[in-house]
UniProtKB/TrEMBL annotation:
Locations listed in the record: Membrane
Protein name as catalogued: SLC41A/MgtE integral membrane domain-containing protein
High-level lineage: Eukaryota, Metazoa, Ecdysozoa, Nematoda, Chromadorea
InterPro entries assigned: SLC41_membr_dom, SLC41_membr_dom_sf, SLC41A1-3
Keyword Chloroplast among UniProt keywords: no
Domain of life (superkingdom): Eukaryota
GO molecular function: monoatomic cation transmembrane transporter activity
GO cellular component: plasma membrane
Membrane topology designation: Multi-pass membrane protein
Length: 514
Protein backbone atom coordinates (compact mmCIF):
# COMPACT_ATOMS: atom_id res chain seq x y z
CA UNK A 1 0.00 0.00 0.00
CA UNK A 2 1.70 3.21 -1.15
CA UNK A 3 0.79 6.26 0.91
CA UNK A 4 2.08 9.76 0.33
CA UNK A 5 1.33 13.41 1.05
CA UNK A 6 -0.06 12.96 4.54
CA UNK A 7 -1.24 16.20 6.05
CA UNK A 8 -2.93 16.59 9.44
CA UNK A 9 -4.68 19.97 9.70
CA UNK A 10 -4.57 21.93 12.92
CA UNK A 11 -8.32 22.17 13.32
CA UNK A 12 -10.26 18.99 13.73
CA UNK A 13 -7.77 16.20 13.19
CA UNK A 14 -8.82 15.80 9.57
CA UNK A 15 -6.20 13.68 7.89
CA UNK A 16 -5.67 13.90 4.15
CA UNK A 17 -3.49 11.46 2.29
CA UNK A 18 -3.05 9.69 -1.01
CA UNK A 19 -3.69 5.97 -1.00
CA UNK A 20 -2.53 4.17 -4.15
CA UNK A 21 -2.54 7.56 -5.92
CA UNK A 22 -6.14 8.23 -4.81
CA UNK A 23 -6.89 11.22 -2.58
CA UNK A 24 -8.64 10.42 0.72
CA UNK A 25 -9.98 12.69 3.46
CA UNK A 26 -11.03 11.03 6.69
CA UNK A 27 -11.86 12.52 10.07
CA UNK A 28 -10.10 11.14 13.13
CA UNK A 29 -12.75 12.60 15.43
CA UNK A 30 -16.41 11.91 16.08
CA UNK A 31 -17.20 8.40 14.99
CA UNK A 32 -14.05 7.85 12.89
CA UNK A 33 -13.93 5.55 9.91
CA UNK A 34 -17.64 4.77 9.74
CA UNK A 35 -18.08 6.98 6.70
CA UNK A 36 -14.65 7.79 5.26
CA UNK A 37 -14.79 10.41 2.57
CA UNK A 38 -13.25 8.85 -0.53
CA UNK A 39 -12.78 10.73 -3.78
CA UNK A 40 -12.48 7.64 -5.96
CA UNK A 41 -15.12 4.90 -6.15
CA UNK A 42 -12.40 2.30 -6.67
CA UNK A 43 -11.27 2.81 -3.09
CA UNK A 44 -13.48 0.97 -0.58
CA UNK A 45 -14.13 1.84 3.04
CA UNK A 46 -12.14 -1.24 4.02
CA UNK A 47 -9.07 0.24 2.35
CA UNK A 48 -9.33 3.29 4.57
CA UNK A 49 -10.06 1.21 7.67
CA UNK A 50 -6.97 -0.86 6.94
CA UNK A 51 -4.86 2.27 7.30
CA UNK A 52 -5.85 2.76 10.95
CA UNK A 53 -2.83 0.83 12.32
CA UNK A 54 -0.56 3.03 10.23
CA UNK A 55 -2.13 6.20 11.59
CA UNK A 56 -1.99 4.94 15.18
CA UNK A 57 1.71 4.20 14.78
CA UNK A 58 2.16 7.62 13.23
CA UNK A 59 0.70 9.19 16.38
CA UNK A 60 2.97 7.09 18.61
CA UNK A 61 6.03 8.31 16.69
CA UNK A 62 4.90 11.92 17.01
CA UNK A 63 4.31 11.49 20.76
CA UNK A 64 7.84 10.15 21.17
CA UNK A 65 9.21 13.17 19.28
CA UNK A 66 7.19 15.51 21.48
CA UNK A 67 8.51 13.73 24.58
CA UNK A 68 12.05 14.43 23.36
CA UNK A 69 11.30 18.15 23.21
CA UNK A 70 10.38 18.60 19.56
CA UNK A 71 7.90 21.50 19.60
CA UNK A 72 6.95 21.12 15.93
CA UNK A 73 7.08 17.38 15.24
CA UNK A 74 6.88 16.20 11.66
CA UNK A 75 7.78 13.29 9.45
CA UNK A 76 10.59 13.81 7.01
CA UNK A 77 11.22 11.98 3.77
CA UNK A 78 12.41 8.47 4.54
CA UNK A 79 10.65 8.11 7.88
CA UNK A 80 8.91 4.77 8.10
CA UNK A 81 6.89 2.78 10.60
CA UNK A 82 6.20 -0.90 11.03
CA UNK A 83 2.64 -1.99 11.83
CA UNK A 84 1.13 -5.25 13.06
CA UNK A 85 0.65 -6.49 9.51
CA UNK A 86 4.43 -6.22 8.93
CA UNK A 87 3.77 -3.81 6.06
CA UNK A 88 6.22 -0.92 5.91
CA UNK A 89 4.79 2.54 5.26
CA UNK A 90 7.05 5.29 3.97
CA UNK A 91 6.24 8.99 4.05
CA UNK A 92 7.32 11.66 1.62
CA UNK A 93 5.75 14.57 3.50
CA UNK A 94 3.78 15.15 6.69
CA UNK A 95 3.17 18.09 8.97
CA UNK A 96 1.30 17.48 12.20
CA UNK A 97 0.05 20.26 14.44
CA UNK A 98 -1.53 20.24 17.86
CA UNK A 99 -5.31 20.05 17.74
CA UNK A 100 -8.34 20.27 19.88
CA UNK A 101 -10.31 17.21 20.91
CA UNK A 102 -13.05 17.58 18.38
CA UNK A 103 -14.17 19.33 15.27
CA UNK A 104 -17.33 19.96 17.23
CA UNK A 105 -17.65 23.63 18.14
CA UNK A 106 -18.48 24.68 21.68
CA UNK A 107 -22.01 25.55 20.58
CA UNK A 108 -22.57 22.20 18.88
CA UNK A 109 -21.08 20.33 21.82
CA UNK A 110 -23.36 22.25 24.19
CA UNK A 111 -26.43 21.42 22.11
CA UNK A 112 -25.47 17.76 21.71
CA UNK A 113 -25.22 17.39 25.49
CA UNK A 114 -28.20 19.64 26.28
CA UNK A 115 -30.96 17.61 24.64
CA UNK A 116 -30.24 14.32 26.45
CA UNK A 117 -29.14 16.15 29.62
CA UNK A 118 -32.50 17.86 30.21
CA UNK A 119 -34.47 14.57 30.18
CA UNK A 120 -31.74 13.11 32.40
CA UNK A 121 -32.21 15.94 34.90
CA UNK A 122 -35.98 15.60 34.81
CA UNK A 123 -35.55 11.90 35.51
CA UNK A 124 -33.56 12.84 38.60
CA UNK A 125 -36.23 15.36 39.63
CA UNK A 126 -38.93 12.70 39.43
CA UNK A 127 -36.64 10.29 41.30
CA UNK A 128 -36.49 12.85 44.11
CA UNK A 129 -40.27 13.19 43.96
CA UNK A 130 -40.63 9.41 44.29
CA UNK A 131 -38.09 9.23 47.13
CA UNK A 132 -40.02 11.92 49.01
CA UNK A 133 -43.15 9.74 48.71
CA UNK A 134 -41.71 6.27 49.34
CA UNK A 135 -39.76 7.35 52.44
CA UNK A 136 -43.12 7.10 54.21
CA UNK A 137 -43.84 3.57 52.92
CA UNK A 138 -43.70 0.61 55.29
CA UNK A 139 -40.56 -0.63 53.54
CA UNK A 140 -38.52 2.42 54.54
CA UNK A 141 -40.16 2.74 57.97
CA UNK A 142 -39.83 -0.90 59.04
CA UNK A 143 -36.50 -1.47 57.27
CA UNK A 144 -34.71 1.92 57.44
CA UNK A 145 -31.53 0.23 56.19
CA UNK A 146 -33.14 0.55 52.75
CA UNK A 147 -32.04 4.21 52.75
CA UNK A 148 -28.43 3.01 52.79
CA UNK A 149 -29.13 0.96 49.66
CA UNK A 150 -30.55 3.93 47.72
CA UNK A 151 -27.27 5.72 46.81
CA UNK A 152 -25.48 2.38 46.30
CA UNK A 153 -28.08 1.09 43.83
CA UNK A 154 -28.47 4.45 42.12
CA UNK A 155 -24.69 4.44 41.91
CA UNK A 156 -24.86 1.22 39.92
CA UNK A 157 -25.98 3.46 37.06
CA UNK A 158 -22.57 5.10 37.23
CA UNK A 159 -20.68 1.93 38.07
CA UNK A 160 -22.20 -0.21 35.35
CA UNK A 161 -24.49 1.44 32.80
CA UNK A 162 -22.60 4.71 32.40
CA UNK A 163 -19.30 2.82 32.32
CA UNK A 164 -20.81 0.51 29.71
CA UNK A 165 -21.97 3.55 27.74
CA UNK A 166 -18.46 5.02 27.86
CA UNK A 167 -16.85 1.71 26.88
CA UNK A 168 -19.28 1.10 24.02
CA UNK A 169 -18.90 4.70 22.80
CA UNK A 170 -15.14 4.29 22.65
CA UNK A 171 -15.49 1.02 20.71
CA UNK A 172 -17.87 2.75 18.29
CA UNK A 173 -15.63 5.81 17.93
CA UNK A 174 -12.65 3.59 17.11
CA UNK A 175 -14.58 1.56 14.54
CA UNK A 176 -14.48 -1.70 16.49
CA UNK A 177 -18.26 -2.07 16.39
CA UNK A 178 -18.10 -2.52 12.64
CA UNK A 179 -17.11 -6.17 12.88
CA UNK A 180 -19.14 -8.70 14.88
CA UNK A 181 -21.13 -6.22 17.04
CA UNK A 182 -23.48 -9.01 18.19
CA UNK A 183 -20.67 -10.82 19.99
CA UNK A 184 -19.53 -7.61 21.70
CA UNK A 185 -23.07 -6.69 22.79
CA UNK A 186 -24.00 -10.12 24.20
CA UNK A 187 -20.72 -10.43 26.10
CA UNK A 188 -21.16 -6.94 27.58
CA UNK A 189 -24.76 -7.65 28.63
CA UNK A 190 -23.59 -10.79 30.44
CA UNK A 191 -20.70 -8.87 32.01
CA UNK A 192 -23.05 -6.24 33.40
CA UNK A 193 -25.28 -8.94 34.91
CA UNK A 194 -22.28 -10.45 36.69
CA UNK A 195 -21.21 -7.04 37.97
CA UNK A 196 -24.76 -6.12 39.02
CA UNK A 197 -25.28 -9.33 40.98
CA UNK A 198 -21.92 -9.17 42.76
CA UNK A 199 -22.11 -5.47 43.61
CA UNK A 200 -25.77 -5.66 44.71
CA UNK A 201 -24.94 -8.58 46.99
CA UNK A 202 -22.00 -6.70 48.51
CA UNK A 203 -24.04 -3.48 48.82
CA UNK A 204 -26.79 -5.23 50.77
CA UNK A 205 -24.19 -6.85 53.03
CA UNK A 206 -22.48 -3.51 53.63
CA UNK A 207 -25.86 -1.91 54.39
CA UNK A 208 -26.50 -4.60 57.01
CA UNK A 209 -23.08 -3.93 58.58
CA UNK A 210 -23.66 -0.16 58.68
CA UNK A 211 -27.06 -0.76 60.29
CA UNK A 212 -25.48 -3.12 62.82
CA UNK A 213 -22.91 -0.53 64.00
CA UNK A 214 -25.37 1.72 65.92
CA UNK A 215 -27.77 -1.11 66.90
CA UNK A 216 -25.29 -3.75 67.96
CA UNK A 217 -27.35 -6.59 66.44
CA UNK A 218 -28.34 -7.95 63.03
CA UNK A 219 -31.91 -8.71 61.97
CA UNK A 220 -31.33 -11.63 59.59
CA UNK A 221 -34.83 -11.49 58.15
CA UNK A 222 -34.22 -7.84 57.21
CA UNK A 223 -30.83 -8.85 55.81
CA UNK A 224 -32.48 -11.44 53.51
CA UNK A 225 -35.08 -8.86 52.47
CA UNK A 226 -32.42 -6.27 51.63
CA UNK A 227 -30.35 -8.81 49.68
CA UNK A 228 -33.30 -10.11 47.62
CA UNK A 229 -34.51 -6.57 46.87
CA UNK A 230 -31.02 -5.39 45.95
CA UNK A 231 -30.25 -8.34 43.65
CA UNK A 232 -33.55 -8.21 41.78
CA UNK A 233 -33.49 -4.44 41.38
CA UNK A 234 -29.89 -4.35 40.16
CA UNK A 235 -30.37 -7.18 37.66
CA UNK A 236 -33.62 -5.94 36.12
CA UNK A 237 -32.66 -2.27 35.89
CA UNK A 238 -29.21 -3.11 34.52
CA UNK A 239 -30.76 -5.21 31.76
CA UNK A 240 -33.23 -2.49 30.75
CA UNK A 241 -30.67 0.32 30.87
CA UNK A 242 -28.00 -1.68 29.04
CA UNK A 243 -30.34 -2.40 26.14
CA UNK A 244 -31.24 1.30 26.06
CA UNK A 245 -27.56 2.29 25.94
CA UNK A 246 -26.90 -0.13 23.07
CA UNK A 247 -29.76 1.37 21.05
CA UNK A 248 -28.56 4.92 21.74
CA UNK A 249 -24.97 4.17 20.68
CA UNK A 250 -26.05 2.41 17.48
CA UNK A 251 -28.49 5.20 16.56
CA UNK A 252 -25.91 7.92 17.35
CA UNK A 253 -23.42 6.11 15.19
CA UNK A 254 -25.81 5.96 12.24
CA UNK A 255 -26.33 9.76 12.46
CA UNK A 256 -22.57 10.46 12.87
CA UNK A 257 -23.13 11.89 16.37
CA UNK A 258 -20.49 11.26 19.01
CA UNK A 259 -22.18 8.79 21.42
CA UNK A 260 -19.93 10.03 24.24
CA UNK A 261 -22.16 13.13 24.38
CA UNK A 262 -25.43 11.20 24.24
CA UNK A 263 -25.22 7.74 25.79
CA UNK A 264 -24.19 8.62 29.34
CA UNK A 265 -26.94 11.25 29.89
CA UNK A 266 -29.57 8.90 28.46
CA UNK A 267 -28.44 6.13 30.81
CA UNK A 268 -28.70 8.61 33.67
CA UNK A 269 -32.13 9.89 32.63
CA UNK A 270 -33.70 6.48 33.14
CA UNK A 271 -31.30 5.17 35.78
CA UNK A 272 -32.39 6.99 38.93
CA UNK A 273 -36.10 6.83 38.20
CA UNK A 274 -36.10 3.18 37.14
CA UNK A 275 -33.88 2.00 39.97
CA UNK A 276 -35.68 3.84 42.76
CA UNK A 277 -39.13 2.84 41.52
CA UNK A 278 -38.10 -0.80 41.08
CA UNK A 279 -36.45 -0.95 44.51
CA UNK A 280 -39.53 0.51 46.22
CA UNK A 281 -42.00 -1.81 44.47
CA UNK A 282 -39.96 -5.01 44.72
CA UNK A 283 -38.88 -4.21 48.27
CA UNK A 284 -42.52 -3.83 49.28
CA UNK A 285 -43.34 -7.18 47.66
CA UNK A 286 -40.45 -8.88 49.44
CA UNK A 287 -41.51 -7.21 52.70
CA UNK A 288 -44.93 -8.82 52.39
CA UNK A 289 -43.24 -12.15 51.58
CA UNK A 290 -41.01 -11.68 54.59
CA UNK A 291 -44.15 -11.72 56.75
CA UNK A 292 -45.95 -14.59 54.97
CA UNK A 293 -43.66 -16.63 52.67
CA UNK A 294 -40.26 -16.38 54.31
CA UNK A 295 -38.77 -18.84 51.80
CA UNK A 296 -39.24 -16.47 48.82
CA UNK A 297 -36.37 -14.13 49.73
CA UNK A 298 -33.97 -17.07 50.16
CA UNK A 299 -35.04 -18.62 46.83
CA UNK A 300 -34.42 -15.32 45.02
CA UNK A 301 -30.94 -14.97 46.53
CA UNK A 302 -29.96 -18.55 45.69
CA UNK A 303 -31.27 -18.20 42.11
CA UNK A 304 -29.12 -15.15 41.38
CA UNK A 305 -26.04 -16.74 42.94
CA UNK A 306 -26.51 -19.87 40.79
CA UNK A 307 -27.00 -17.77 37.64
CA UNK A 308 -23.71 -15.91 38.10
CA UNK A 309 -21.42 -18.67 36.66
CA UNK A 310 -23.55 -18.82 33.50
CA UNK A 311 -23.31 -15.05 32.94
CA UNK A 312 -19.56 -15.27 33.62
CA UNK A 313 -19.18 -17.97 30.95
CA UNK A 314 -21.00 -15.83 28.35
CA UNK A 315 -19.02 -12.70 29.30
CA UNK A 316 -15.73 -14.49 28.64
CA UNK A 317 -16.61 -14.90 24.95
CA UNK A 318 -15.13 -11.46 24.13
CA UNK A 319 -11.56 -10.40 24.86
CA UNK A 320 -12.58 -6.89 25.91
CA UNK A 321 -15.05 -8.12 28.51
CA UNK A 322 -12.59 -10.74 29.78
CA UNK A 323 -10.19 -7.96 30.76
CA UNK A 324 -12.95 -6.06 32.59
CA UNK A 325 -14.15 -9.28 34.22
CA UNK A 326 -10.69 -10.07 35.55
CA UNK A 327 -9.38 -6.59 36.38
CA UNK A 328 -12.39 -4.28 36.64
CA UNK A 329 -13.67 -5.08 40.12
CA UNK A 330 -11.74 -2.59 42.23
CA UNK A 331 -13.44 0.56 40.86
CA UNK A 332 -17.02 -0.69 41.20
CA UNK A 333 -16.49 -2.24 44.64
CA UNK A 334 -14.70 0.78 46.10
CA UNK A 335 -17.23 3.14 44.54
CA UNK A 336 -20.03 1.04 46.03
CA UNK A 337 -18.43 1.47 49.46
CA UNK A 338 -18.19 5.24 48.92
CA UNK A 339 -21.84 5.42 47.77
CA UNK A 340 -22.92 3.31 50.75
CA UNK A 341 -21.13 5.74 53.05
CA UNK A 342 -23.21 8.46 51.39
CA UNK A 343 -26.28 6.31 52.02
CA UNK A 344 -25.39 6.00 55.70
CA UNK A 345 -25.11 9.79 55.78
CA UNK A 346 -28.48 10.07 53.99
CA UNK A 347 -30.16 7.74 56.51
CA UNK A 348 -28.93 9.95 59.34
CA UNK A 349 -29.67 13.35 57.80
CA UNK A 350 -33.09 12.46 56.39
CA UNK A 351 -34.38 11.94 59.93
CA UNK A 352 -33.46 15.53 60.78
CA UNK A 353 -34.26 17.09 57.39
CA UNK A 354 -36.88 14.93 55.57
CA UNK A 355 -37.01 17.29 52.57
CA UNK A 356 -33.44 16.40 51.66
CA UNK A 357 -34.98 13.40 49.89
CA UNK A 358 -36.41 15.70 47.21
CA UNK A 359 -33.05 17.22 46.24
CA UNK A 360 -30.68 14.29 46.83
CA UNK A 361 -31.08 12.51 43.45
CA UNK A 362 -30.91 15.84 41.59
CA UNK A 363 -27.72 17.31 43.02
CA UNK A 364 -25.99 13.92 43.08
CA UNK A 365 -27.18 13.00 39.60
CA UNK A 366 -26.32 16.27 37.84
CA UNK A 367 -22.79 16.32 39.24
CA UNK A 368 -22.16 12.65 38.51
CA UNK A 369 -23.66 12.96 35.03
CA UNK A 370 -21.45 15.89 34.01
CA UNK A 371 -18.37 14.15 35.40
CA UNK A 372 -19.29 10.96 33.52
CA UNK A 373 -19.63 12.83 30.21
CA UNK A 374 -16.25 14.47 30.83
CA UNK A 375 -14.62 11.14 31.65
CA UNK A 376 -16.19 9.41 28.65
CA UNK A 377 -14.96 12.07 26.22
CA UNK A 378 -11.46 12.10 27.71
CA UNK A 379 -11.21 8.30 27.66
CA UNK A 380 -12.16 8.23 23.98
CA UNK A 381 -9.62 10.98 23.22
CA UNK A 382 -6.82 9.11 24.98
CA UNK A 383 -7.69 5.89 23.17
CA UNK A 384 -7.64 7.68 19.83
CA UNK A 385 -4.51 9.76 20.24
CA UNK A 386 -2.11 8.28 22.81
CA UNK A 387 -0.34 4.97 23.13
CA UNK A 388 -1.61 3.12 26.20
CA UNK A 389 0.34 4.28 29.25
CA UNK A 390 1.84 7.41 27.66
CA UNK A 391 0.86 11.06 28.18
CA UNK A 392 1.78 14.09 26.13
CA UNK A 393 2.09 16.16 29.32
CA UNK A 394 3.53 15.15 32.64
CA UNK A 395 1.06 13.80 35.17
CA UNK A 396 2.03 16.55 37.64
CA UNK A 397 0.74 19.19 35.20
CA UNK A 398 -2.79 17.84 35.73
CA UNK A 399 -2.68 19.04 39.35
CA UNK A 400 -2.89 22.61 38.06
CA UNK A 401 -6.34 24.13 38.55
CA UNK A 402 -5.54 26.67 35.84
CA UNK A 403 -4.71 23.92 33.36
CA UNK A 404 -7.91 22.02 34.21
CA UNK A 405 -10.24 24.94 33.40
CA UNK A 406 -8.43 27.85 31.74
CA UNK A 407 -5.89 26.30 29.37
CA UNK A 408 -6.17 25.17 25.76
CA UNK A 409 -5.99 21.52 26.82
CA UNK A 410 -8.72 19.23 25.55
CA UNK A 411 -10.12 18.56 29.02
CA UNK A 412 -10.27 22.27 29.84
CA UNK A 413 -12.25 22.87 26.65
CA UNK A 414 -14.85 20.26 27.66
CA UNK A 415 -14.87 21.37 31.30
CA UNK A 416 -15.74 24.95 30.38
CA UNK A 417 -18.66 23.78 28.25
CA UNK A 418 -19.92 21.39 30.96
CA UNK A 419 -19.76 24.09 33.64
CA UNK A 420 -22.22 26.14 31.60
CA UNK A 421 -24.91 23.59 32.45
CA UNK A 422 -24.73 23.90 36.23
CA UNK A 423 -26.47 27.18 37.04
CA UNK A 424 -29.29 27.28 34.44
CA UNK A 425 -30.06 23.57 34.73
CA UNK A 426 -30.24 23.58 38.52
CA UNK A 427 -32.45 26.68 38.45
CA UNK A 428 -34.75 24.96 35.96
CA UNK A 429 -34.82 21.70 37.92
CA UNK A 430 -35.53 23.56 41.16
CA UNK A 431 -38.41 25.35 39.45
CA UNK A 432 -39.85 21.98 38.37
CA UNK A 433 -39.40 20.65 41.92
CA UNK A 434 -41.30 23.61 43.37
CA UNK A 435 -44.16 22.99 40.90
CA UNK A 436 -44.33 19.28 41.77
CA UNK A 437 -44.38 20.07 45.49
CA UNK A 438 -46.59 23.15 45.34
CA UNK A 439 -48.15 23.84 48.71
CA UNK A 440 -45.54 21.85 50.64
CA UNK A 441 -42.95 23.23 53.03
CA UNK A 442 -40.01 22.90 50.66
CA UNK A 443 -37.27 25.50 51.17
CA UNK A 444 -37.30 28.20 48.51
CA UNK A 445 -36.46 31.85 47.98
CA UNK A 446 -33.27 33.74 47.07
CA UNK A 447 -31.28 32.57 50.11
CA UNK A 448 -31.90 28.87 49.53
CA UNK A 449 -31.38 29.14 45.77
CA UNK A 450 -28.10 31.04 46.19
CA UNK A 451 -26.68 28.57 48.70
CA UNK A 452 -27.89 25.59 46.65
CA UNK A 453 -26.37 26.89 43.37
CA UNK A 454 -23.06 27.66 45.08
CA UNK A 455 -22.96 24.14 46.55
CA UNK A 456 -23.76 22.61 43.14
CA UNK A 457 -20.98 24.63 41.50
CA UNK A 458 -18.49 23.55 44.15
CA UNK A 459 -19.49 19.91 43.64
CA UNK A 460 -19.17 19.99 39.83
CA UNK A 461 -15.90 21.96 39.84
CA UNK A 462 -14.39 19.43 42.24
CA UNK A 463 -15.62 16.50 40.15
CA UNK A 464 -14.40 17.92 36.82
CA UNK A 465 -11.01 18.76 38.33
CA UNK A 466 -10.69 15.27 39.80
CA UNK A 467 -11.90 13.76 36.51
CA UNK A 468 -9.09 15.12 34.32
CA UNK A 469 -6.54 14.13 36.95
CA UNK A 470 -8.01 10.66 37.51
CA UNK A 471 -8.30 9.82 33.80
CA UNK A 472 -4.71 10.91 33.16
CA UNK A 473 -3.47 8.93 36.17
CA UNK A 474 -5.35 5.77 35.18
CA UNK A 475 -4.09 6.03 31.60
CA UNK A 476 -0.50 6.53 32.78
CA UNK A 477 -0.61 3.31 34.84
CA UNK A 478 -2.27 1.42 31.94
CA UNK A 479 -5.72 1.14 33.49
CA UNK A 480 -8.57 1.74 31.03
CA UNK A 481 -10.38 4.93 32.19
CA UNK A 482 -13.53 3.77 30.39
CA UNK A 483 -13.85 1.03 33.00
CA UNK A 484 -12.38 2.68 36.09
CA UNK A 485 -12.96 6.44 36.14
CA UNK A 486 -16.75 6.83 36.07
CA UNK A 487 -17.49 4.59 39.09
CA UNK A 488 -15.17 6.62 41.30
CA UNK A 489 -16.49 9.95 40.02
CA UNK A 490 -20.19 9.15 40.42
CA UNK A 491 -19.59 7.70 43.89
CA UNK A 492 -17.70 10.82 44.94
CA UNK A 493 -20.54 12.86 43.43
CA UNK A 494 -22.97 11.02 45.71
CA UNK A 495 -20.80 11.61 48.77
CA UNK A 496 -20.11 15.29 47.99
CA UNK A 497 -23.75 15.93 47.06
CA UNK A 498 -25.22 14.39 50.22
CA UNK A 499 -22.71 16.19 52.43
CA UNK A 500 -23.31 19.54 50.71
CA UNK A 501 -27.08 19.08 50.98
CA UNK A 502 -26.69 18.53 54.71
CA UNK A 503 -24.65 21.75 54.93
CA UNK A 504 -27.34 23.61 52.93
CA UNK A 505 -30.19 22.52 55.19
CA UNK A 506 -28.11 22.99 58.35
CA UNK A 507 -27.23 26.53 57.21
CA UNK A 508 -30.89 27.33 56.52
CA UNK A 509 -31.82 25.98 59.94
CA UNK A 510 -29.13 28.15 61.53
CA UNK A 511 -30.26 31.27 59.61
CA UNK A 512 -33.90 30.65 60.55
CA UNK A 513 -32.99 30.52 64.24
CA UNK A 514 -31.25 33.87 63.94
Amino acid sequence: MDISNIDNESKGLETKFELNNVFVAASLDGPPWYKPKVTDSKLSSDDVTDSIPMLRKMEEMLNSKIAKGDENPSFSSGDSIQVASDEDFSFTHANVFDSIMSTTSSCNLFLQILFPFIPAGLGMVFAGYILDIVQHWNLFIEVPETFILVPALLGLKGNLEMTFASRLSTLANMGRMNSNPKKIIIANLALIQVQAIVVAFLASGFAVILAWIPKGQIDWSHAALLCASSLTTASLTSLVLSITVICVVLISRSFSINPDNIATPIAASLGDLTTLGTLSLLGSIFLAAHLNETWLNIIVIVTFIMATPFFTYVARKDNGTVDVLENGWSPIIFSMLISSAGGFMLESTIKRFPKIAVFQPVINGVGGNLAAIHASRLATFYHQHYAFGTLRETLSSHFSFKRAFFSNAVDAYSARVLLLFVVPCHIFFNWVIQILHKGSSLPSGPLFTSIYICAALVQVILLLYMCQLLVAFLWSIKVDPDCASIPYLTALGDLFGTFLLFLIFASLSWFSKD
